[in-house]
Amino acid sequence: MILRIDRLQTQLPPPSDPDPVGASAVQELLGGKFGEMSTFMNYTYQSFNFRNRQGARPFYDLVASIAAEEFGHIELVSAAINTMLTGAAEGEPGTAGALDSVKGTRNTQQFIAGGAATLVQDSNGKPWNGDYVFSSGDLIEDLTHNFFLETGARNNKLKVYEMVEHPAARALTGYLLVRGGVHQVAYARALENLTGANLTKLFPSPRIPTEKIPECQPHIERGEHLKLYRFSPSDFQEIAAVFNGPHPETGEELRIAEEIQPEGVPPFDLPSQPAVFAPGPEPEEIAEIAASLRQAAGLPKNPTGVVANNGGNGVMKKVKDAVT
Amino acid sequence: MILRIDRLQTQLPPPSDPDPVGASAVQELLGGKFGEMSTFMNYTYQSFNFRNRQGARPFYDLVASIAAEEFGHIELVSAAINTMLTGAAEGEPGTAGALDSVKGTRNTQQFIAGGAATLVQDSNGKPWNGDYVFSSGDLIEDLTHNFFLETGARNNKLKVYEMVEHPAARALTGYLLVRGGVHQVAYARALENLTGANLTKLFPSPRIPTEKIPECQPHIERGEHLKLYRFSPSDFQEIAAVFNGPHPETGEELRIAEEIQPEGVPPFDLPSQPAVFAPGPEPEEIAEIAASLRQAAGLPKNPTGVVANNGGNGVMKKVKDAVT
Amino acid sequence: MILRIDRLQTQLPPPSDPDPVGASAVQELLGGKFGEMSTFMNYTYQSFNFRNRQGARPFYDLVASIAAEEFGHIELVSAAINTMLTGAAEGEPGTAGALDSVKGTRNTQQFIAGGAATLVQDSNGKPWNGDYVFSSGDLIEDLTHNFFLETGARNNKLKVYEMVEHPAARALTGYLLVRGGVHQVAYARALENLTGANLTKLFPSPRIPTEKIPECQPHIERGEHLKLYRFSPSDFQEIAAVFNGPHPETGEELRIAEEIQPEGVPPFDLPSQPAVFAPGPEPEEIAEIAASLRQAAGLPKNPTGVVANNGGNGVMKKVKDAVT
Amino acid sequence: MILRIDRLQTQLPPPSDPDPVGASAVQELLGGKFGEMSTFMNYTYQSFNFRNRQGARPFYDLVASIAAEEFGHIELVSAAINTMLTGAAEGEPGTAGALDSVKGTRNTQQFIAGGAATLVQDSNGKPWNGDYVFSSGDLIEDLTHNFFLETGARNNKLKVYEMVEHPAARALTGYLLVRGGVHQVAYARALENLTGANLTKLFPSPRIPTEKIPECQPHIERGEHLKLYRFSPSDFQEIAAVFNGPHPETGEELRIAEEIQPEGVPPFDLPSQPAVFAPGPEPEEIAEIAASLRQAAGLPKNPTGVVANNGGNGVMKKVKDAVT
Amino acid sequence: MILRIDRLQTQLPPPSDPDPVGASAVQELLGGKFGEMSTFMNYTYQSFNFRNRQGARPFYDLVASIAAEEFGHIELVSAAINTMLTGAAEGEPGTAGALDSVKGTRNTQQFIAGGAATLVQDSNGKPWNGDYVFSSGDLIEDLTHNFFLETGARNNKLKVYEMVEHPAARALTGYLLVRGGVHQVAYARALENLTGANLTKLFPSPRIPTEKIPECQPHIERGEHLKLYRFSPSDFQEIAAVFNGPHPETGEELRIAEEIQPEGVPPFDLPSQPAVFAPGPEPEEIAEIAASLRQAAGLPKNPTGVVANNGGNGVMKKVKDAVT
Amino acid sequence: MILRIDRLQTQLPPPSDPDPVGASAVQELLGGKFGEMSTFMNYTYQSFNFRNRQGARPFYDLVASIAAEEFGHIELVSAAINTMLTGAAEGEPGTAGALDSVKGTRNTQQFIAGGAATLVQDSNGKPWNGDYVFSSGDLIEDLTHNFFLETGARNNKLKVYEMVEHPAARALTGYLLVRGGVHQVAYARALENLTGANLTKLFPSPRIPTEKIPECQPHIERGEHLKLYRFSPSDFQEIAAVFNGPHPETGEELRIAEEIQPEGVPPFDLPSQPAVFAPGPEPEEIAEIAASLRQAAGLPKNPTGVVANNGGNGVMKKVKDAVT
Q: Do F156 and F33 touch, CB atoms closer than 8 A?
């Protein structure tokens, strides 16, 4: 079971200039073979399929807990993509030419199938599929896979970092490189504990230390490169048994965070994109219905949700206006 | 972000006679077009892609919160499949003929690629893919989709209930039919609140009321057919604005559960299946390593995890032995 | 544009003993690379994409007209599959074990996704896809492809004939082998007319003359191996310019049928399969609603459709009862 | 069985400036999950799989008859795509650089695999597949699906209308929006008749009335938004029992057309695109062969086919020349 | 470029009792994610994509040379599958029921699409696809991948060994386990040489030493677990720079074979399977044509090819007869 | 079994201006339905699946031997793609914007998944799959398929020749058109020998003789359009029995080459692309390790491999520098 906390693991910038072509590249980090759907689903199903959990508890806890973090990563990548698409479909709905500016974009389905939104696809428009999940049941193999998966994921993140200069993409990859590095270390440590094989010698791979990347620095400064969270109110205590020792690049001590999960930040409430009917029908009409439903249910008059760009008057405003 | 609670939403029976052919049919409820991967991922991505959340808060909360419940459903279906596969691969590892009994099973990859374990596939062995996710951004369309998706899902659940008599499959489908029914109602109510369209008149579809199904009864008795959980420590308060009124079949009042999530039950710790190296290498060897890692980390001597078949001596025992 | 005539091109036997495993093999002739979806869609899209139609009119007419016949073939294969599945899902709906007899069938989706019905898949459960369509625009290449496609299709039909002894499968393949042979000849003749290449020398391929197959005889006796229909009220007159000369196996003269299309036969109205909710909700309830809708619309009291097993009292009866 | 009439359901403009990038977007309406292949194939297979046809005759007739109309839609979308590609591949065949202008187009296979022609793919180049067909056998579910499918299709049509300003794309989407709207209404009415659920309250969805779209007006003026055709010489009489009552947007009375099918218009005979060998080999050579085959078969000297740009001298001329 | 030697790398037994269900499982070793198509294609494309070959020559030579060996593995797996299918389709061609015995087999396409023959699919009938190829260009990543791929491949081989007792399957897996082990070691050594990481500590994985498997023994006795072949007349000399040191399981010294490639054995000439038209048309007719073509070309009267079951009279005889 | 010779079948130009968009089009010739993966794999599996080899020896030898040549073609296409991508990713690794110039390229995975390298995909980014392999076992059908496959392949090659003006693409297609033509003739001759059908009359198709294409001329002058190589040290002697008679376009005599295989040329050693970590980690570091491994193994100090741009000092230099 999961509980959901309506916050992003890290801050992304608000929408600025739209970048649909860049957003199509960022899709690789969502639905690519080495994207976050793959990390999320691999660890999730490995934990579901884990036999002899009590006997191998520290390893089960590790895989199950990292799986939980990865949900936050598909959420973050989606938020980045949606941010980058914001502003690209603000034309008059139902009007010829309203989407003309994205006719030549690399992934038209972000606008035709979606409302200027994330798809469960890679950067070439191929859907993610269950074939990307490896779950053999053999602990050494699964951990070897996970180490390799994080290595490939790190490579892809670096490439997208180099390819897409939109602020949301850079903030995203800066964060994911740091956290992905932690997972690489975690799986290497697990294998070392099980077999003595020192996979940390393969670090970093590709050979770009995160300290060379400006967007990684705020997270490194907060020690995010050194700690695992449990992501559970009371379970997964035994990750501490595996995740310890020195960080292979910096020598600092690895540790378990005291907080259950990162504090996180409220997401931006991304504004309507009328030309793609997102949301439809009329936002104002929906807002009115919502208000009266709240009232009928005895809930507060104003929306109870917390968003980064919460106005003071209970009326949704366009983010872009708000921040400019 | 999510937190993970290491409990199943409902009790499944412990392993008994293995049923690999039945397990291949149950895969439809995991990775089929109308399986739980589809419900989980559709609502998850719709919530990620939701624009104007504040304006449409009750609807956002509804979709986001049901998404969280669906994680528990992929977990349950996996647990059922793994339960049904337990005992099918207990032969001597590395021995010719050890898996002879499953040579003719419908999905050989459960044993070749997996360790007698769930795959992210449907009942015909086709991987789930991201193309099954619908997220248009238009609220009416997305809710219409979700209503239809739950309808198809209910149909598939009924078929699997009829097709597979293994106790785990029956317990699974009994529970999912009840909870899926709640989601059908929730989306119908959302559409009714938005537009006045009375989709509850389509109920139930297929025309089998859950009260006719014995395996649904314990859940109905606990009122599980009437309530939504928030599945969040503090978010998603506004589901109460949408989910209310009479149940379309029974007339009872729909309500929001007081607890954040169902209490749930600890999962069975499914025993090793040596012939498929799950877990490998030797379970005892892993257990020993785990124990010494725990000790080194200052953790309790015995595993801290809670499982349904927790022994008193800290040593994993085969579930089947335990229950027979 | 098309008009639809609610008749099958040839008679299939009524349902008898169900044969779900056989039906999964027959799916190859529907959704396989060389199935009727492929012939239908290849010729259809080649006709849509045909440039310079006036200049190449006889060839356009040939491709466009055979495309129309192929619709009748996907209809026939579907009818055969549905016939073979009839009787396999008659158990009590919503009852555990009602579908137990098909738990081990090769294609469970015929029952889980469908109502004991045809899927758009091949015999291994893989969906037909648009990649199977070849349409280069170069007339010689397209005709070479079509000749090859019919050759592969003939091979598959023979294999299914050998593999599945259910009466519906044998009646189906007997008919399709004869008509597919006509199409092979037609494309060979087209190429011969264009280039002088004598592809008829490759006949028959595989080397089984249809006169050796009992189920082909009724059709050969009616001359169905010698004629093309126009399948159009007034178009496609110029097929006569291409389809003529002697049949490569028998030496008889090829000819254009005087009738626009085969007379055909009304289909059997296949009975309900309650355990798969086909049709759902209650057939009787639907029948009643239908009757009153007819009345309100000023239509005859009894159903106006013609089916092979039309009763005299306007009430649907189970086919199997009727014929036994 | 079908008969084919060599006419388009509505007039499209002749080729003008080519727009390959736009044509790649229009592919979504052909081979996308919500494209016309999906509507055509869903209703076709639902009609093939329909059990208890006599009992549910009005509903069978409705689905079977709309299926027939949808063939005309895949034909129309193809015609639009081919029109938009005309002129993009007129260079000298076999010459380096002849296709240089489309090297960067979004879907290169339209030129490499095809002859400047339609593919059975979506706007991201993914082939249509049989997995998009839903056919459960449960009438309520199938109709709910169809209503939802038409809703999604309408959304996609609006998006393509906004995205692609080429005259052929606008004429296409103007027509399809009107006819798709009729089908949405038809399925909503069917569900209302069966269950009382008033799905027409969801109209229109997305919230753009067709009367706001200039390209829809000629069709609305002819009443095309109010009527269903039977698309059959004598079958499908009972659609009248379902399709009646007021139009949900305009209140006008729905009705069955007196004509069997729309009169339609002859298609443009699209000119050769030599750089892609469409048609190949030499058009003139083919025309000569065709003429002598006609003569040998006792057919008229000139092509008998009727095309929009029929010349008076029996010689194919380039459409673009003819219309400029 | 390659040269082809018409010999198998190791001896497989001649056909005996057919085992189509077993053959469908063996397909995993051909077209599965961890099958030999994957090893062959991964190393082949990594060698094609290798930049800076001179600088990294020993590593390039290693990957390029192992790629060449893997061709022999897809050949061997195919030979095993075809051997297992021999005898399953010997009925009278074109006769109803001739293939009845394989109607229920797991992979009907082996007989419908193929002539009792290998498909490029996995054990669930899913085609191998190019997505299984990893080629990042980063040497450490590619080698890590290859090590992991061989680990997964070893696991799958063990599973198939356990699952399928047909002599051809056992001979196949016995050989492949030994050779796959060599490749695992080779990639581990390459990584160790590059980084110092001691991946050999993960050995063996799964934890079944090949010395426990009887079918591995003849190969181990010949030292096949210790040596790499260059598989090239003059290239790939530098594999010696990487592949050396002690074997991680036995401590014996790794070495480069003196012979360029294993001597190999001529394949069995598998007999006709008439019911699937393999080969068609009549074998005797083909043999006669072949003989006269040979004569006309001044070649020897008898076939020049060498096969394991070469008769003395130039006439193909059924293998099964020959060996029984 | 194969032996590998580290040479390309023909000379390609060294890298010049990068052309990633062109390279994405050339992918069609690698992983498209009619690309070289298809020719390679079709003939390879047909040879593996060939029954009654002795009886049909000349035909077996033909298919098996052409299969070997096709390996050289996937190698050549890859070399061309990699050449075209060289220079596109030379920026500073790990730096934002280093890959900005390829953000809008048609196939981003060439840079994200790969190191500026070939993928096993077609020009729309769809992976090649095993479904493209046809291997029926019926000799006439397989040869008909192969003839058709070569026809489609020739068409695709011509289209790519027209579309992509990069020198590497033109050199590639010039060569492949000549060799593909030889294969078309070979399969036509095989069919003629078996059946008398004169498929050579379909030549050339599309109707562009290779003598009109400048890039074909050097190869025609060397007689490459007339000869088959055996591609085997001692096998496949009997291709001479099938491949003889006059060339259908020029009337010159077809012949078997005296050399086993074309002499070929050493490949260019393509330079590092640092921004995509190909190769990683540091090229210089790898070179050093390689040198000391060579030394330890008693190999020559300098790399033993032969490349087109071999420097005299044992140090890899950038090709582009070398040739400018």
A: no
